[in-house]
Design goal:
383 residues, alpha+beta, MutS, DNA mismatch repair protein, domain I, Dna Ligase, domain 1, 5-stranded antiparallel sheet, 3-stranded mixed sheet, 16 helices
């Protein structure tokens, strides 16, 4: 999808159409979650600090993210995908791989399917998508980024090198900004140069991954579309506008993060067997602590209790530390239907409170109802 969060905001509020728009946090440590194409012309990009974005485009408008709304629209888009193939590997709310091999006889050639999907999204969602059609996932991913917004790029098997060779190495998915700079500094500016580089040069850059990187630069990718892709972990984190020290405000933040993480578990019908707390101090040093939970659970109280114990232990070891960021994550995930593999006990998540809160938030927004413990004492008194 093209600038998904920002495009949804501009669609829902016509007053924002055509204006430089940032979706993200407005505080001193806010980060750009999405940038409209109008603001991208000034060099603003997602993951950029909001303060820097406003330096580049002082007239930009900032709106906070509405994740419940983006999930709703995402479900509409994925429902369109499902009309054409069941082989869908979702990467995020706004991006997916589709394998249409078995759909060609029913729906026609792959470029025709891509065009129909784009038309359906435009007609039913009033949004645009950019599509890459190619023999494999890697080339399709690259192609989908070449003609944004509202693009459709088709790459046949015999045109792979002609397309990839002139592209800058930074176009290679998964290379990373830091490694990309190392490759450029080594004199390899394009994917063609990377593909043709001698073995010794690639080994110095990539070590044991040298052959794999040569293959990727040449468009070789044997990965199948995984329609049953299973999440390995789920987490929520927050960077604070001002550093927090141990106390009621920090505990309230921890409970909010645990509640968000637990809600995502339930939405995915998953249970967690391990809780992790991520802690970043004001000097950017980062720590993680984790604890197993038994039986597996998606209950907010269970997740929050384990997270609070981990934070309390770390705080005792680091008294008075000022925290810049706090996160709560879960791993060792399993489908809810598999609970009998772990325990014959009735799980705590069967209590009715969590699903009721989930339904209220889905209908009225995340801030519609809060747990008392997630609101710091001063704010509770004001409420």
């Amino acid at each position: 999808m093209d600038a998904f969060y920002a495009s949804v905001e501009q669609r829902d509020d016509p007053r924002l159409a055509g204006l430089p728009l940032i979706v993200g946090g407005a505080g001193p440590r806010g980060v750009v979650a999405a940038a409209s194409y109008e603001v991208r012309r000034y060099g603003v990009r997602s993951a950029m600090p909001t303060r820097r974005a406003l330096e580049l485009c002082p007239q930009a408008l900032i709106v906070p993210p509405r994740m419940a709304r983006y999930r709703e629209v995402s479900r509409q888009v994925f429902a369109i995908f499902a009309r054409y193939t069941p082989e869908i590997e979702g990467l995020s709310l706004d991006e997916a791989y589709l394998d249409v091999t078995a759909s060609l006889a029913l729906h026609g050639p792959a470029p025709h399917i891509a065009a129909r999907i784009k038309t359906d999204i435009q007609r039913e969602c009033a949004l645009t998508a950019s599509v890459g059609v190619a023999p494999n996932k890697l080339i399709a991913k690259i192609a989908s980024d070449l003609d944004k917004p509202d693009g459709l790029t088709v790459v046949s098997a015999d045109a792979v090198h002609a397309l990839l060779d002139p592209l800058p190495v930074t176009r290679l998915p998964g290379l990373g900004r830091k490694k990309g700079q190392e490759v450029l500094a080594a004199g390899l500016a394009t994917l063609g140069e990377l593909r043709r580089a001698d073995d010794a040069r690639l080994r110095r850059l990539f070590g044991t991954q040298a052959q794999r990187m040569r293959e990727r630069a040449g468009g070789i990718d044997e990965r199948p579309v995984q329609s049953e892709h299973r999440e390995q972990s789920i987490s929520a984190e927050r960077t604070f506008d001002h550093d927090l020290r141990d106390g009621a405000p920090l505990r309230a933040e921890l409970l909010r993060l645990a509640d968000r993480t637990s809600q995502r578990l339930r939405r995915a019908s998953l249970l967690a067997g391990c809780v992790t707390v991520k802690i970043r101090r004001a000097d950017f040093s980062t720590f993680t602590r984790q604890q197993g939970i038994h039986p597996h659970s998606c209950d907010s109280r269970v997740i929050a209790g384990a997270a609070a114990a981990l934070l309390a232990q770390w705080s005792r070891e680091n008294p008075g530390a000022a925290l810049r960021l706090l996160g709560v994550g879960v791993s060792s995930l399993a489908k809810s239907a598999q609970i009998d593999l772990f325990s014959q006990q009735i799980p705590a998540e069967s209590a009715p409170l969590d699903p009721v809160l989930d339904r209220i938030r889905e209908k009225f927004g995340q801030s519609a109802i809060l747990r008392a413990g997630s609101v710091a004492r001063g704010a509770r008194e004001r409420h």
